[in-house]
Hints:
Blueprint: H1 2-22, E1 27-31, E2 34-39, E3 45-53, H2 66-76, H3 84-93, E4 97-102, E5 106-114, H4 118-130, H5 136-154, H6 157-169, H7 183-188, H8 191-201, E6 207-212, H9 217-228, E7 250-255, E8 261-268, H10 277-298, E9 306-310, E10 316-323, H11 326-343, H12 347-364, H13 368-382, H14 387-396, H15 400-410, E11 415-420, H16 427-432
Parallel strand pairs: 2-6, 7-11
Antiparallel strand pairs: 1-2, 3-5, 3-6, 4-5, 8-10, 8-11, 9-10
Amino acid sequence: MKKFLYTILITCLAIGSQTANAQEEAYEMMVSGVKVIVQPTKNDILEIQTIIKGGVQNYPASKVGIESLAMNALTECGTEKHDKNSFKDALDKVSAYVYGYSNKNYSVIRMNCIKGDFDAVWPLYLEALTIPKFDATEFARIKKVAISNLKAQESQPDAAINKFADSIAFAGRDYAKEPSGTVPSLTKLTPQETKAYYKSVFNKAHLLVVVVGNLDKKLIEERVNAMLAAVPQGSPFQLKKSSFRVYKNTFNAEPREFATNYVQGITGGPQPGTPDFDAFSVAMRIFADRHFLDVRTNNGLSYAPQAWFSSGTTSTARFSVSTTQPDKYIAVFDKLVDQLKTQGFKADEVANMKVEYLTGFYYKNETNSAQASSIASNEVLFNNWKRSMTMVNDVKKLTLDDVNTAFRNYIGNTVWVYQGDTKKVNPVLFINGTVKKPDNPVSH
């Protein structure tokens, strides 16, 4: 298996090398005070992403959902030159895409088209960015859809446990805010207020532009400069990163009438740009496999147990299961964590996961849109867009000790949340732990 994985990696490296040779080197330039990052390509697909940095840091908790709704309104409510239908019809004629979306760290307004259609699509993209209409009737429609989606999520256990976990773990912090909003917050939003909010964050201090495609540098500079001509500078903005540390185990339960019980744990993780980041990414992928094997295969406690590293301005490690036996789950979890922190991962596990990680990275970044998203994410979160090109070498250099040390540094005390039948869970096991140690005499 190991030899097979290395063969795949060698193939991917060869493809990556050929791609790199076939493309010109990526570059950055400042255009009217905004950083523009360009990855030239030899294909005929154009992907342009305008990033608004800040995410949940841009609005108060009482206005959650306002940025998400604004991103949707840019194309769903028409512009000063086109109503919604004529705007979409113009895009459909050339099979192009223009739309926006938001997450906890930033928002994206993307444009995707064939190079030959650039002159037809760019003006539409420009309209959506600079003269969105926020038509009252269309705004009411998209707000109604957003509220309906939120209500539907309330009955979906996976979505419910994620929101519950965030509300407990990040209480009082920006990351407790849900980008999609809440029913009460969305209900109060008006088109006028949302439009004003959009104008307040669509300024040069918040913006980043990423272009992946075969366009002349001078043309890019001219078009972006024209786009930014009427955009205000805005107050200086710096995306804030915050560490998340859990100093003692906690447990919060919420009774829900689900078919089974849902458990999620959140603990800290390294911030983007710190030395442990790549090593922890590999460690959590190995842990996810071990977690799945122990919880489902060996003990039959959950159909789809998960463990993952959620990176962002506040990075965390997460563990999640749906189970009828939550007390048995925490015993298996504690035993696995204790074993790995004591004995460490195996050398072949780390070697194989590095290969798997990099293979996935190559496959994931085959498209222009994926490359643009990778560049944007690395620039916003790491302040280093070039990491999207250098990360492969960084991961290849990781040692067994790097990965074990990163896991030991961050996996520990956990914020546990639970939804389901509260009579079937013993909070003491989650708070005190189940592994007997000299400094933890509790044994169950």
